[in-house]
Amino acid sequence: MPADPRIRRQADALLAAGYEVDVFALRDAGQATEESVNGLRILRLPVRRRFASFAGHLAEYLAFTGAAALRLTREHRRRRYGVVQVATLPDFLAFAAAALKLAGVPLLLDLHEDMPAFFDDRFRSTGLRPLRPLIGGLTRASAAMADAILTVHEPLRQLSLARGVQPEKVTVVMNSADDRVFDPARHPRRPFLQDGELRLIHHSSLQRIYGLPVAVEAVARLRSDVEARLDVYGDGPYRSPVEAEVARLGVDDRVTLHGRVPMEQLPGLLASSDVALVPSLPEPYLQYSLSTKLLEAVAMGIPVIASDLATFRSHFSDTAIRYVAGGDAQALASAIRELAADPDGAGRQAAEARRQAEPYAWAIQAGRYLEVVDRLADRSSQ
Q: Residue 236 contacts by C-beta under 8 Å, 6 or more apart in sequence?
């Protein structure tokens, strides 16, 4: 199956609606070049992620764009696609569908993130600054090429409109938790502080911007007055600095890095925890990011402490999420203490977050998604 949960959910929605679906994806070592899973046809191209540098990223992006263009054009002769959807990053992957676009096949661009903000965050070298106008130009050109655009939340939609995209062209389909998997009815919650220990949880790709060292320092600050444990699920390039911080602060008995776990295990892990931490750093890139991990914790009825970021606040009020200043370990530790001292308040906060998240449910988002695809497919068949 595709690694991206959003693509998996979209593919499932399309299959359930009667569409035939092909997914063109990266190919990791040991994976088949082609397979069919529950009716979904997966075509893996001879490109995989290997590099962290700008040159490496660019080479991989260009290689995949070229390979996708060739394979997509070849498959279209046989399959006669009705719609082509491109999931970013990068936005210029849309150009892989140029031949089909010229042949009259509608193009749907699904913006998972903002490419200029991603570029600014990941590649900060002064030598790369002259490329920023080019990145912005590619973003606008990709949007202009698309027949319709999806964004994962309203702030990203507003950013597209600010760049000149017509409002009727952009639809928000949120990257919601899959309610078939994150179902609290199937995973009973443990009573808050059941055994006297406060169980904290963080699950994400281990990247610098997600601020995990801040959470580690907060746990260290709790040592004298709150019996707390932090379980971390996920892996990534920032694992070594996190391990170094755990060792420096002497909290290896309180912080455990478990590595990656299958998504199907996460609901049970969340249900057996007391508080979820989302300590993202307050940087421009994350002002246009709504953590799926936050939505998954909310879906499971877990109280959340999160950094005070604009996109988070645009979806949840401070009665639903306990907000703290991003990057401030002392503020995070204080918020943890307050929730630990008020189990009833923690329960009310979690319940309010679930109430506010009701419009974000995947069943609703899938309906929006299918409306866009149906419209494009109807246009293609005319």
A: 204, 205, 206, 207
CB 7 within 8 A of CB 175: no
What pTM did the predictor assign? Answer: 0.84
- Could you tell me which residue, 5 or 161, shows the higher pLDDT? 161
The residue among 144, 132, 105 whose CA lies nearest residue 377 is 105
**Would you say domain 184-359 falls under CATH 3.40.50.2000?**
yes
Residues of the chain with CATH 3.40.50.2000: 5-175+361-381, 184-359
Answer for the pair 26, 45: CB distance below 8 angstroms, yes or no. yes
Please say whether the beta carbons of 81 and 105 come within 8 A: yes
Instruction: Look up residue 234 and give its DSSP letter.
Output: B
Lowest mean pLDDT among 1-10, 192-201, 317-326, 363-372: 1-10
pLDDT tens digits, one per residue of 101-150: 999 999 999 998 888 877 777 676 777 777 788 888 889 999 999 999 99
pLDDT, average across residues 223-237: 90
**Non-local CB neighbours of 351 within 8 Å, separated by 6+ positions:** 301
- State the DSSP H helix or E strand holding residue 151, giving kind and residue range, or none if neither: strand 148-151
H or E stretch covering 200? strand 198-203
